[in-house]
Design goal:
Layout lengths: L2 H8 L3 H156 L58 E3 L2 E10 L1 H10 L3 E2 L5 H10 L5 E6 L8 E2 L24 E4 L5 E4 L5 E9 L3
Parallel strand pairs: 4-8
Antiparallel strand pairs: 1-2, 2-8, 3-8, 4-5, 4-6, 6-7
């Protein structure tokens, strides 16, 4: 009988029992290990969920805190914007007030400027009147000499006529060799009313020159340097920007006056020689509006107005200029023109 048989007869042997116990232990161990694993997995899962919940709570709390901060910032920004808007409105109102003040100041300045222009014009008129009065005062002492000179000229003309008549009739006479040509510095205010009855027998071969003679047929065409002679008058064509009154006194300093025009021939001559950008002439209506007066006091017997002129545009065009075409235009006396024309009588 084999041991195996013996074992079978006696029941399982120790080895078998040990193997069985080991198998049970192994199974138990496996079951415990699975339980532990499941427990660990549960614990890890629970920890993960707890961490996730914690993160969610932290995120929610942080989000709430951020939202609160955003609300506070938004409230502060709204308050600041409101303050800025109020300050902007205040600044805008201040700017509008400053603009209104500036507008008022501009209006006052314009009114003051107009008043100053009016005063300047009145001052200019007064100055012109004072200059004219001064010129008249200076000329008062010259009137007597001029009258005596004119009387002497007429006397010389009568003597010349008588000499021609005597020469034609072959009447023997005696005459002085010269005829006085100048006037003493002091003369009588009235010329002799009659011519002496005794006429010279012989007459001079040439008549003495007269500085202001305008006798028909005389050859008075001598002009100063830089003056141009035309029809017994001398003309000076000035250049340089001047107002009308400045041009007038410039002519006076040259012993002339602003030109007076009395014929188409004279106008054509001036148009040919005058400044092409416009020139002042001696015509104005400073005293009475619309009543134009020449510097030589002669009537306005010739005119060459541009169509539509004079129009006194702007109320104050009281001085007359000659344009490049030769036509006249009334202009402001304070304008500066590049040209101005003077005239004076030629000497013989």
């Amino acid at each position: 009988m084999t041991p195996h048989g013996q074992a079978e007869g006696r029941g399982p042997g120790p080895a078998l029992r040990h193997q069985a116990d080991f198998s049970k232990f192994t199974r138990r161990r496996r079951c415990c290990r699975k339980g532990i694993q499941l427990a660990l997995v549960g614990l890890v899962t629970a920890a993960l969920w707890a961490g996730l919940l914690t993160l969610l709570l932290l995120w929610h709390w942080d989000t709430l805190r951020n939202l609160k901060q955003l609300e506070e910032n938004a409230a502060r920004n709204v308050t600041q914007v409101s303050k800025d808007l109020e300050r902007h409105k205040g600044d805008e109102m201040a700017q509008k007030s400053q603009a209104a003040q500036m507008l008022q100041n501009m209006e006052r300045i314009q009114a003051e400027q107009k008043r100053m222009e009016s005063q300047e014009f009145e001052l200019f008129q007064n100055l012109d009147g004072l200059r004219a009065d001064l010129s008249n005062l200076k000329s008062l002492n010259m009137n007597e000499r001029r009258m005596a000179l004119e009387s002497l000229e007429r006397l010389q003309e009568e003597i010349q006529k008588l000499w021609v008549e005597l020469r034609e009739s072959n009447v023997p006479t005696t005459a002085p060799t010269t005829v006085p040509a100048t006037v003493p510095t002091t003369v009588l205010t009235t010329a002799p009313a009659t011519v002496p009855t005794m006429v010279p027998a012989t007459a001079p071969t040439t008549a003495a020159p007269l500085s202001l003679s305008s006798t028909p047929g005389s050859t008075c065409n001598t002009c100063p340097e830089k003056w141009v002679s035309f029809q017994r008058k001398c003309y000076y064509f000035g250049e340089g920007a001047k107002k009308w009154i400045q041009a007038r006194f410039a002519c006076s300093n040259l012993h002339g006056r602003l030109v007076s025009i009395h014929s188409q021939e004279e106008q054509d001559f001036l148009t040919k020689h005058a400044n092409k950008r416009g020139s002042w002439i001696g015509l104005r209506d400073l005293d009475i509006e619309g009543e134009f007066i020449w510097m030589d006091k002669k009537p306005l017997n010739y005119s060459n107005w541009q169509p539509g002129e004079p129009n006194d545009a702007g109320q104050g065009e009281n001085c007359v200029m000659m344009q490049a075409s030769g036509q006249w235009n009334d202009a402001f006396c304070n304008n500066r023109l590049d040209g101005w024309v003077c005239d004076r009588l030629a000497t013989c």
